[in-house]
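Let's practice the habit of predicting before peeking. Look at the sequence and jot down your guess about where helices and strands might fall. Then scroll down.
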Amino acid sequence: MNTGNIDKEVLSLLQFKDKLKELGHFYTGYDNIEHLKRQFKDQLEKLIDKKLI
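Done guessing? Here is the structure:
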């Protein structure tokens, strides 16, 4: 990323990552849309197993 392109969206991302950390979750990157879908599915399954949803 070119530092000249840094704006308030970067601050929003950092705040979001901090909020996740406070909640006991951690930011996870993904390589492509299929990877993102798999991670999302895995997290939903964990919630279902814990009967949270």
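How did you do? Residues 3-49 form one domain.
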